[in-house]
Write the structure tokens for this entry.
Amino acid sequence: MLDIAPPLSASVTERSAERDRFAAIRQQTEALAAHLSPEDQAIQSMPDVSPTKWHLAHTSWFFETFLLGPLDPVYRAFDPAFAYLFNSYYEAVGPRHPRPERGLLSRPTVDAVAAYRDHVTAAMLRLIETAGEAVWQKAAPLIELGTHHEQQHQELILMDIKHVFSVNPLLPAYQAPRPHAVSPGRPGTAWVEFGGGLEEIGHAGAGFAFDNEGPRHRVWLEPFRLAAHPVCCGEYLDFIADGGYRRPEFWLSEGWAAVQQQAWQAPLYWRCEDREWLIFTLSGEHPVDPAEPVCHISFYEADAFARWAGKRLPTEAEWEIAARDLPVTGNLADSGRFHPCPDTASADDHAGLRQMIGDVWEWTASPYTAYPRFRPAAGAVGEYNGKFMSNQMVLRGGAAVTPADHLRITYRNFFPPSARWAFSGLRLAEDL
């Protein structure tokens, strides 16, 4: 039996809100997968990509492992073998199926994974509704972490299926094109200046944040300025035309090695046919729009472009200070477009920073390391972020596939510098 006790009125309101959020996020994950056939959901096109059905199962495994197993005495695992199949990287929890081999799992089937999700969802709703206060105090922060974890996998579902479809010669579309306002044209060059000085960054106060977003701390910034817009495809086409991928003077050593070894000539999902550049999107292939933010470039490409332009990438502290007073709104997953869009404001409305939120994650010059006084959480959940603080770079701002209520100005995304399948672009910076 659960520890059942009459919850306080404040707890009733909190639980109701948490229940609704949990149910809505679970349904949204399944809605994303509803576009896909069982065959689509089983494919792993490269080691960094996971099959859709694996994401569906892993996000259920998270709730089963960290909440239902420890906190609900009446809960029974759907299938004990799933503990091995759907653990991602939590060493403290136990062994796991190798990540590069997730696409070899023809079983369990998509239907079995759907039944697993239903089993976990029903048990979680029961836990939220009936747990006594002592259990609820332990469960509530883990439920919040789990729902944000599932939203991260919603973004990964879209990232990963895009790569899966891109290697199919038929170039299938995930969805039909979504209309958006027509751009007035390629954005002009404009800059926004910041005075520098002693500033504070990092999450503080109420509201959810991942552990890597804190503690809040002071940083010293020299005066700088940021480009008003992220780099657009037209600007990146100029870089390509000027031999950007053939000129080693713009590249870090490892970046130049990647260019040569992987034969990079343009962003991922671009190809040139009859002198026209085409881009593959979740709505199929279409001509590159010079006005939309460039997407699917690695840190190495972002850094090389900045050097070619005579500029640099912003640090994550500069990015956060510049964005701190901006609303967390933009072209995010909730628009349903799942692709960067041009800035549709008129030239007269271009004052200030544009498109800081949404469209593309923006590479920064900052390595992904711990903030001062950072301590990972105790137990297996402490492996969530801290263990990856090596050989990765920070990105900021969210993308067209990021859920809107998942994002904050302090959010620190991170990928290896060679990663290209994320919805990643760049914004230029320079010293004053």
